[in-house]
Amino acid sequence: MSSKIHPPGIRATKGLAGSVRGRLWPLGQAAVGLASALATGGALAQESTPPTETPRTESPAPAAPAAPSEGTENTFVLPTVKVQEAADPREYHTEQSGLTRLPQPLLDTPQSVTVVPEKVIEEQNATTVRDALRNVSGITVSAGEGGRQGDTFNLRGFSAQSDTFRDGVRDLGWFTRDTFNLGGVEVFFGPSAVLFGRGSTGGAVNLTTKRPSKRATSSVSLTGGTAPSGRLEVDVNSVISERVQARINVLGQLANIAGRDDVSENRLGFAPSLTIALGQNTSLDFDYFYQHEQSVPDYGHPYYQGGPVGITYGVGRDVFYGVRGEDRERVNAHVATARFQHRFGEGREGSPRLTNTLRLGGVDRFSRPTSPRGLVPAIHPETIGRERYQTDTDNLYLINQTDLRGELQTGIVKQTANIGLELSRESRDQYRDNLTATGASPNLPADLFDPEPTPDLSTVNRVFSGSNESRQWDVGVYAADQMAISRFVEVLGSARVDIFRTRYSAVDRAGVRTNLQNKDTLFNWRVGLVLHPLDKTSVYAMYGTSANPSAEAGALANNNATLEPETNQTYEIGAKAELLESRLGLNASVFRIEKTNARVANSDPTQPQLVLEGAQRVQGYNVGVTGQITSAWRVLANYTHLDSDILEHTNPYLVGQPLPNTPKRSLSLWTTVSLLDGLTLGGGAVYQDVTTVNNPTSAAQSYNKVPNYWRFDAFASYTLWERLDLQLNVNNLTNRLFYDQYYAGQAVPAAARTAFLTARVHF
Fold first, then answer.
1. Where is this protein localized, as stated in its record (predicted)?
2. Which of 76, 88, 616, 617 is most buried when burial is the number of CB atoms within 10 A of its CB?
């Protein structure tokens, strides 16, 4: 968390005059002088513009004024000006990715990358990665499905279910990731297989964790919400010695969801980390992440007449079809990481640097949700079926990544290259029981408009549904080289080979076991051209590939075990610029993603059930801005336009339909303005277009769609004392009913209007 720290003997200026002078320095000396004159009643103060990289400090105490000399009786003596510490431009605008295998600045990277910085996460009180990603257009969130829930994202129309990473290493497991130990969230759009491996068709999400630093800081924040909810966060960074620093982040949360009966999100988190300098050029890092969740899962509302019943049929936003006291989600996530880094060549800039990361992680998850299924009667329904089941899922993974990167000057060509090796083993064991009722239907009936929260469960029996286990191994080798031929031209080439093996075993409800295995060799590559027509600008073109093996999500079936991976191609042309002394970043791109061999149902019943005869395409453009327009005005905004199509399919009726969960237009905006000393106001807006959630296979079926929506939020913070900040957030200001998580089976209502008050103390 950021804090306003002043060196000993230096204090922030109080009062309107100091505030106005401090906020207007980017506009030039003349504007500062005029504002100072107006604020101080005629005394003209001049200030110099400091570098943006360092905080501004007050001027030293002046010497005693000299006696006026002859002819100076009309000369005014300028008063000493105390200057407030300038905001760090990097708090909004990020110039470098946290990935060690992406050594070039984002300006020189031929790919769309959007970063949600820690400052924005803090200002928005964004407690989950899902909340943080509201700041990134072109992303949708899937609702729970078959017992799954948590962070299931779609990027540019394609599933990124297994494409979440933590500090560049794959982060597995179905759970809702909290932000209490995150220093930012990076979204890499386009083909990222050379960076991350399998999947990443539409892109990948990388979480950057908070690391120890050589500056001793501590903060405690306490938040209360109207849902009601309460949240405590502690962040302590300790400098044990010049060579050893430690940091610990702690979280506790008890939270109901505004506007949703019986739904809660209760979490506990603990994340210590340690950095040890073994030598001048060698370091060793350790960090551990633990998150516990004990919540009530929300599977939302069913569809009727083409949309969620809350929109099309007048069902209340608060209507929850679960069973009070019985529906639950329990998660225990553990991630332990050790990282070794060494820079060769006496640590000179550009010298080769070796990084080895070893991670052991596990996620144990138990879920007992209720899915709303089966409206009765079909016309003007009054009853909904409660489909209930429980799943127990255990994930365990061990991953080692080794990266070596460095620079080489050959004549006029400067090469920035890296090579790497990734070894991983993943396992998942899952067990499922159905909770079925005796009678005509296995689903408990409930009133569609007023469901009984504590129904009679005496007729419900637990019936074994199935179990499965999977073991996966991956060996990945990758290399990249970005050559700067001159200060105007750079060429990028990269490639990765993965050998991905899966062994899968499943037992059905009749006790019949099926053993399957699969081995895929994935070769993906990418090339790019970067031009620098002006300083701090780039224009780029990029082409890359990615692949989706059948066992990408850890499961196999008889109809896909022998299929080759789906393959994808992405074309992107874009431009980036850093303005106002690199305080403000601009970016824009046009892109096309093509999946040329999508898995589709076979129309020939004598052949395998699935064949690689489909084709899909998503094309569009995005624009974005992030950073400081002035020292007082910050902004993070982006817009994405997506046009998706099914180009080929064995069922002609599907050709021409859009891809599910792919809104045509989406917009995200967050902006803040520091008006007076210590007072900051701001707000945000999120827009998402009408979104289809299914693909009808015949004229007898209809589209289900989630309506478009606007969401507006407000923010205010005030530094009450030097070490105490108060922050107010009001989310969904208009209290509009909308759905921001959905899939073909149901859509989940977003929280109603909610206010949060946070007190944050810095030590």
1. Cell outer membrane
2. 616
Query: What is the extent of the structural domain holding 169?
Result: 113-207
Query: How long, in residues, is the chain?
Result: 763
Residues 230 and 172 in one domain: no
58 phi, psi to nearest 5 deg: -70, 160
Element (H, E) at 138: none
User: How many distinct structural domains can be found in the chain?
Assistant: 2
Amino acid code (one letter) for 576: K
Boundary (domain end) residue, out of 207, 237, 255: 207
533 exposed, middle or buried (CB, 10 Å; 0-12, 13-18, 19+)? exposed
230 CB neighbour count, 10 Å cutoff: 13
Q: What is the pLDDT of residues 410-465, one digit of tens each?
A: 888 999 999 999 999 999 999 999 999 988 789 999 999 999 999 999 999 999 99
| Residue 370 CA: distances (Å) to CA of 321, 329, 661 | 7, 11, 22
In a domain, 701, yes or no: yes
Q: Which tens digits make up the pLDDT trace of 222-274?
A: 999 999 999 999 999 999 999 999 999 999 999 999 999 999 999 999 999 99
Domain check: are 547 and 426 in the same one? Answer: yes
pTM comes to 0.86
Q: Taking the alpha carbons of 295, 208, 213, 217 in that order, is the dihedral positive or negative?
A: negative
| Beta-bridge partner residues of 742 | 747
Instruction: Please state, in angstroms and rounded to a whole number, the distance separating the CA atoms of residues 260 and 455.
Output: 18
Expressed in angstroms, the distance from the first to the final Cα of the chain is: 12
If asked whether residues 184 and 222 sit together in one domain, one would say no
DSSP track, 503-547 = EEEEEETT--EEEEEEEEEEEEEEEEEEE-SSTTEEEEEEEEEEE
How many helices and strands in the chain, by DSSP H and E?
A: 6, 38
Q: Which two tokens stand for residue 556?
A: 């196999």
Of 156, 185, 207, which closes a domain?
Answer: 207
Residues 197 and 226 in one domain: no
3-state secondary structure of 345: helix
Q: Is the dihedral of CA 151, 154, 159, 163 positive or negative?
A: negative
